[in-house]
Design brief:
CATH architecture of the largest domain: 2-Layer Sandwich
CATH class of the largest domain: Alpha Beta
Helix content: 10-25%
Number of strands: 18
Structural class: alpha+beta
Strand order of the largest sheet: 1-2-3-6-4-5
Number of domains: 3
Shape: globular
Oligomer: single chain
CATH topology of the largest domain: 60s Ribosomal Protein L30, Chain: A
Radius of gyration: 19 Å
Strand content: 25-35%
Order of helices and strands: EEEHEHEEEEEHEHEEEEEHEHEE
């Protein structure tokens, strides 16, 4: 199980959680926000000032955990839509002051925080002892793959030459990012069989999701990994181009694997609920769905969230775990106005367990969906 870390001099963690947790040599942070100790947004309207506050807060978390900056294995940036066009390129200067370029896997996407006026939030995973294996070009912003013991983090991957939208473009871009993943794994003497979970962020609603599934199939097969797929904001914070339709990152494990298919919770046809590997369990993201795949409670947010977490609870139990084993919780909410309702439901399931939490606004491919959540589990 994880050891929770709450830093006294920082703002009170959201959703009844904590700032970070340590499990089996890895540190997982919450989505760290640009807030001062009073919980007030610093740098309102300015993504660079907010990034500076976020990294000061991250530094306090790492110090409290005894983790060096050199141990950071993955960084995820979440930018609010209002940050678009506001000198986002300067936030990378902030990151470089703290974390050496090319030494972390990373991803940046447009995803609003549920917190008002927040333009920047950052999540980290780090090796507690600072030891990691890096694959990639040190002159690049991100490493292609970073491994800590048996666990690895690849990407994020962005289409290399995005073209203006046209029929089949999502297929082409998806094929490109999975080919990049396969190449990174090969360079790390690993294989696609080691992919445990993929996060796929599609930047436009209404696209044919069959395109990216068909592009993905030659690389990773349904039933061999778990996933989270959501609609993020349009565009790309790293200025690759507004024509980017999909971004992706992946989590890996070299340890032996046990695949779980349960009869107690919904999952996509042919898919997995969870993969137990080493000391961790990678779980499929869940939604408010019945076993037959129908969406439940589309007009009742509390019941919708409750069903989502009921499905996650079934995944936990199916792997011999419970909510005390959750080392990180990430949620996507269709409308930020419902954040307190979602938090209340989450606290009811978590009870007294505090874990790092990231709360984002996201879109879904199911027009009836209001909420989606995923967990990382440490045994």
């Amino acid at each position: 199980m994880a050891s929770a870390i709450t830093v006294a001099e920082l703002y009170e963690p959201r959703a009844g959680g904590c700032h970070a947790a340590v499990a089996h040599g890895l540190l997982y942070t919450a989505g760290i926000l640009p807030l001062n100790a009073l919980g007030e947004v610093v740098g309102r309207g300015d993504p660079v000032r907010q990034a500076e506050q976020v990294f000061r807060n991250v530094g306090a978390v790492l110090k409290a955990a005894g983790v060096p900056w050199s141990g950071v294995a993955r960084i995820k940036w979440f930018f609010g839509a209002e940050a678009r066009g506001k000198a986002i390129e300067r936030v990378w200067d902030v990151q470089r002051r703290y974390a050496a370029p090319g030494r972390q896997a990373g991803l940046s996407i447009f995803h609003d925080s549920v917190e008002p006026d927040v333009l920047v939030a950052v999540e980290l995973i780090a090796a507690v002892d600072g030891k990691k294996h890096v694959v990639g070009d040190p002159s690049s912003r991100w490493a292609r793959l970073v491994r800590v013991g048996d666990v690895g983090f690849a990407g994020g991957f962005v289409p290399r030459v995005p073209r203006p939208f046209q029929p089949g473009e999502l297929f082409r871009q998806s094929e490109d990012i999975y080919a990049q993943l396969a190449a990174a794994l090969k360079d790390a003497s690993s294989s696609l069989k080691d992919v445990m979970r993929v996060h796929q962020y599609v930047t436009r609603p209404g696209l044919d999701m069959g395109e990216f599934r068909r592009a993905r199939d030659p690389f990773v097969k349904i039933g061999e990994f778990v996933s989270t797929s959501v609609v993020s904001g349009a565009g790309d914070p790293e200025m690759v181009g507004d024509d980017v339709l999909i971004k992706m990152d992946a989590e890996l494990s070299l340890a032996p694997k046990e695949y779980a298919k349960l009869k107690t919770a919904w999952v996509n046809p042919g898919g997995l609920h969870a993969i137990k590997t080493g000391d961790f369990v990678f779980a499929q993201a869940q939604m408010s769905r019945a076993l037959d795949g129908s969406t439940l409670h589309p007009t009742d947010l509390a019941a919708h969230c409750d069903q989502t977490l009921r499905n996650l609870d079934a995944e936990l139990k199916g792997c011999g775990a419970d909510w005390r084993n959750v080392v990180h919780f990430r949620s996507f909410l269709k409308d930020a106005a419902g954040r307190e309702i979602a938090r209340q439901v989450q606290r009811a399931w978590m009870k007294n367990h505090a874990c790092p939490t990231t709360e984002l606004v996201g879109g879904f491919f199911d027009p009836l969906a209001l909420y989606e959540a995923e967990v990382m589990i440490a045994l």
